[in-house]
């Protein structure tokens, strides 16, 4: 009997970033996989805030 393919379950890390419009109470969340994180720094946060304001307004 031959052994089939073996799969390993590896844990993944994801980061969650959220924005809340206090006037309406609507919350938007961004989930970012660990492979897409650029590392430390404010560039990722700046990009997410820019995306939020350009798509959902102020």
UniProtKB/TrEMBL annotation:
Tell me which domain of life the UniProt entry assigns to the organism this sequence originates from.
Eukaryota
**Protein name listed in UniProt:** Uncharacterized protein
